[in-house]
Amino acid sequence: MDLWIKEMQNENAAMTYKVKETLHTEKTEYQHLAILDTYEFGRMLVLDGIVQTTIRDEFAYHEMITHVPLFTHENPKKVLVIGGGDGGTIREILKHKSVEKAVLCEIDDRVVELSKKYLPEISCGLSDPRVEVFIGDGIKYVQEHKNEFDVAIVDSTDPIGAAEGLFNVNFYKSLYDCLRADGIFTAQTESPFYSPQMVKKIFGDIESVFPVTKLYMGTVLTYPGVHWSFTMGSKKYDPERIDINNISELDTKYYYKDLHKACFVLPKYIKDLIMKK
Asked: What is the C-alpha separation between 125 and 43, in angstroms, rounded?
């Protein structure tokens, strides 16, 4: 008998994946968690029925949410990750030699523990001595740490359930205060094709707080619409004005220096979406 997982993109569309083996399932304190081994994308982390990351395509998401802000900042030493318990964003952060400390703030400890067990290629950086793993509420953590981080990355699930509070003006104001004078934050901000009004609202909320706000795109095959948005809020640095010749070569598969500015060139429908008031 064939076993498939179906993730709804909206009420009229879905993506399906043929499952080789169910490696783990449980109901944690916060969500339903599953680790599946699929034929096309390998091992896959699924939370509340929504694909979070897979062995095959995770590099695109983790590289774009990490290297764009870190190479925009002149000297990122201390970096905060909200969410991202699988460890992929931490792994990419550690590729930057300037980083002295990276803090992972994840509300669900089971995501961290099971990623270590079943997704070692992604979670491998979590044992690095520069990394501090804090299990707790990211909103509260940000409120309690002011003027502390050079870069903050919101690597969250969709804006429902435990992650809902990570997508509003009050949280963005707290992030602004959490960052140093030249700080930058970046968040995953959903699909402009399937969730255009959500993308528009998030962009507008961030723009109301940060003097430099830019939306950029990446291609993540297992995310709704494949064409995925990220939004950067910066106190000082404009990612489109940096000298890309200062971007060093890293061990990456998706991001490289020529892509840095190119990812901010938006399809017209997305540009129109965020420009219209």
From this structure: 18
Q: Which two tokens stand for residue 91?
A: 């792994």
- From the list 155, 158, 238, 258, the catalytic residue is 155
User: For residue 44, what are the β-bridge partners?
Assistant: 36, 54
Structure tokens at 10: 């909206």
pLDDT at 10: 86
Tell me the DSSP string of 17-55: EEEEEEEEEEE-SSSEEEEEEETTTEEEEEETTEEEEET
Is 58-275 a CATH 3.40.50.40 domain? no
Instruction: Decide if 25 contacts 100 (C-beta within 8 A).
Output: no
Domain 3-54 indexed as CATH 2.40.50.870? no
Region at 48 (left for phi over 0; alpha for psi -120 to 50; beta for the rest): left
User: Residues near 133 by Cβ (< 8 Å), separated by ≥ 6?
Assistant: 103, 104, 106, 112, 126
Q: Which of 202, 259, 247 is nearest to 60 (CA)?
A: 259
Compute the average pLDDT of residues 14-38: 97
* Every domain of the chain and the residues it spans: 3-54, 58-275
86 near 119, Cβ under 8 Å? yes
- For 111, the token pair is 């995501």
Closest CA to 165 of 224, 94, 225, 82: 82
92: left (phi over 0), alpha (psi -120 to 50) or beta: alpha
End-to-end CA distance of the chain: 51
155 has catalytic annotation: yes
Confidence at residue 167, expressed as pLDDT on a 0 to 100 scale? 77
pLDDT digits (tens, 9 = 90+) for 146-196: 999 999 999 986 665 655 667 789 999 999 999 999 999 999 999 999 999
